[in-house]
Amino acid sequence: MPALYLNSLSRRAALGACALALTALAPLAAHAATAPATGAPIKLALVESLSGSFANTGEAVFRNVAWAIERVNGRGGVALPPSAGGNRPLQLVRYDSKGQNEEALSALRAAIDDGARVILQGNSSATAAVLIEAINKHNQREPDKRVLFLNYSAVDPILTNEKCSFWHFRFDAHADMRMAALMDVMREDQALQRVYLIGQDYSFGQAVLREARRQLGAQRPDVAIVGDELHPVGRVKDFAPYAVKIKASGAQAVITGNWGNDLTLLVKAAREVGYEGMFYTFYGNALGAPAALGDAGVGRVVAVADWLPNVPTAGSRAFYQAFRERFPKPQDDYVHMRMQLMVESLAQAIERAASTDAAAVARALEGAQVSLFGQGGRVRAQDHQFQQTLVVGVMDRLGAPGVQFDVEGSGYGFRVVRQIAAEQAAQPSSCRMQRP
Hints:
Blueprint (H helix, E strand, L loop, with lengths): L4 E4 L3 H7 L23 E7 L6 H20 L15 E7 L4 H13 L4 E4 L3 H17 L6 E4 L16 E3 L4 H12 L7 E7 L2 H17 L4 E8 L8 H9 L4 E4 L4 H12 L5 E4 L7 H5 L7 E5 L8 H13 L10 H17 L4 H8 L3 E4 L2 E6 L4 E4 L1 E8 L14 E9 L1 H4 L11
Parallel strand pairs: 1-3, 2-3, 2-4, 4-5, 5-6, 7-8, 7-9, 9-10, 10-11
Antiparallel strand pairs: 11-15, 12-13, 13-14, 15-16
Family: Belongs to the leucine-binding protein family.
InterPro entries: BCAA_transport, Leu-bd, Peripla_BP_I, TAT_signal
Protein name: Branched-chain amino acid ABC transporter substrate-binding protein
């Protein structure tokens, strides 16, 4: 990896020792370079699990955000007036939360001390909640060092409802939005009569199962829930007992919000015990899940996302092919359109604000609209929830109709079966935001 990013530990001394200067990479073909960025870097702190059970998810995020930053820097960085530093590059700094909330809070403090004014995190709603609370307090105590929190994956609905914050913006569809998209497909499966609910035992996993129960009751009251359980996050190494119970229950489908190894190990165990039902998932489209299922997943694994590689447009194909050229290793193949749109939104908001002040940038982000490669969305000012099209895909073999691209070199991809417009995917919010 070029000397574009700072790999950081939570210890302050290590931060100083590891500091690297930011340099712009060559621009992507789709974006011609303008005047080079010569001003002081604008530091973005990635606070994520970069070691432990979910290190693969953290590294996937890093690749996506790094690529988005390369695009911005390749066209000259963020254009600011001379009084605000002129053209300034974005700098991504890595902080390993080790999957622990206390480590994440320590990383937040170190990032702020190190000059970061934008915090990026997403791979845990529980961590996102504690970061929101800490940032609210920090910004009130130290208005000269206020920071923004951009969330790309923490999808507990409470984060843009009861716990909404002026300083927090979510660029992923929250769990209720994702569940509604899956339910749009499940509603048409009249043969479905029995489902099993399983999830990770923390705020997000609990929210997924709660919403699954609510939406099934409202839209498919004829479907019986034959299993409903939570398991420890990131600590189960053998999901065979869970898979045996799922098979024995007679469930025709599993609904799960599991992600990372908790999903991969679950679907692998299901295959090994001979479970032949459907999997309705939030994240079944990558990070080892398709390869773990193999042919057993064809036609039976459903995933909802903000975007999938096989979205049938020329812009989508160009976007995915550009990512694969930048990261050609099959194991690095987990690309998120929303993370690209998040960085683009930030860069444009800084330019509109003509400042890096957190409050000014936040106001510029409210109502921001952004598009890239034919995909786009807007930030809803009421709750800072990004509104975008959602897609639902079904796993199939590479080369099958609608499957031009596989994932992670597995030989399996996801055929898009439903595209849900942003207006249809939107959900009401109970946010009562306090603005400075």
